[in-house]
Design goal:
A hairpin with a 2-residue loop joins strand 1 and strand 2. Helices cover 21% and strands 44% of the residues. The protein starts with a strand and ends with a strand. It has two helices and six strands. A four-stranded antiparallel beta sheet has the order 3-4-5-6, covered by helices on one side. A two-stranded antiparallel ribbon has the order 1-2. By secondary structure, it is of the alpha+beta class. The protein has one domain: SHC Adaptor Protein. Helix 1 crosses helix 2.
C-alpha cells in the first residue's frame, strides 16, 4: 500500500481513503471539496525525520497514515472519536 507524492504534495487513492473513512470512493473528492473531509499533514522531526503523518477527519472518525518519503505506509490507525 502506497501514497503517491506529486510536486511535494501527497495523493492518496480515493478507494483507500473511502475504505478507511467508511465513505464510497466516488464521494471522497466531493466531500473534500466541501470541507466535510478535512486533512492535516505533519513532517516528522528527530527520530521521525523522513516520515510524514497524514491525518483525515470525517464525521467523528480520524484516520492517520504514517508514510516515509517514498510514500510507503509504515503505520495506520483508525479511531472513532464520536
Amino acid at each position: 500500500m502506497k501514497v503517491e507524492r506529486h510536486e511535494g504534495d501527497f495523493v492518496i487513492d480515493a478507494s483507500l481513503l473511502g475504505e478507511l473513512l467508511n465513505v464510497p470512493a466516488p464521494d471522497v473528492q466531493a466531500l473534500m471539496r466541501r470541507s466535510e473531509i478535512t486533512s492535516l499533514c505533519e513532517r516528522g522531526e528527530e527520530e521521525h525525520a523522513g516520515q510524514f503523518r497524514l491525518t483525515f477527519f470525517y464525521k467523528g472518525r480520524r484516520v492517520q497514515l504514517s508514510v516515509d518519503e517514498a510514500g510507503r505506509i509504515v503505520r495506520r490507525s483508525v479511531l472513532d472519536i464520536g
